[in-house]
Design a protein that fits this description.
Elements lengths: L2 H24 L8 H11 L3 E6 L4 H8 L5 H10 L1 E6 L4 H6 L7 E5 L5 E6 L4 H9 L10 H21 L3 H14 L4 H14 L2 H24 L7
Parallel strand pairs: 1-2
Antiparallel strand pairs: 1-3, 3-4
Helix pairs in contact: 4-6, 7-8, 7-9, 8-9
Pfam family, one: Thioredox_DsbH
Keywords: Signal
Protein name: Thioredoxin domain-containing protein
Length: 233
Amino acid sequence: MSRAGFVVVSVLTVAAGLFATGEARAQEVNWRTDLTAARKEAVQTGRPLLLDFGFEGCVWCRKLDATTFRAPTVVAALNERFIPVKVDVEQDGEISRAMGIKSFPTLVVATPDGKVVDQHSGYMDVRQLMALLSRVPAAQAKPDPVAMSASESREMLARFRRDYESQNYLACLTKGDELQARFPNSTEAREARTLAGKITGDPDKWQRVLGQIDENLATIGKELAADGGPVRP
């Protein structure tokens, strides 16, 4: 075989090996072993936990790993919808004792906050496990507070701009103060400060602000008079 042919064959062999490795990994459950970290991940993603209690010498645990947990439908369901966790009762038996688990394997499905939704002791085939998983409510991810803050600051700036364009400068300054107080380091707050400076630095715009204040005071006075309250001349 020529050197070029040898190189081509070698490259194809390596590529095939990488493909096979990737395919094998894709057909494996992404088990977590740190329960504390797994619960934190569950809270962040809103996905329920699947706890698999077992130990090294458990025959039915090994069979579950070799058969049911290798099925593509099970692998996909667990990796996409759950946070799967392996709990070795020989290494960490406190949890199983606290839950009263005495036979293995035992599968426990729990919400992110730790509430047990379902539990099964003993071996399960693919059909049985998929039936168990189908009874679990869909994940409900918590809103991202950073994304929510960004969305809210953009909406506040949009209202600020509308008031500015309609020359409602008093409302504009009020919204600008609120925006800067809640999101002082945001891009929206910087833009609000720039527009507010254009209002306070322009005599005509500032005069309009004072006029709007007088209008508001007059409106308040009329409302007090209508309610029978004191009105100063």
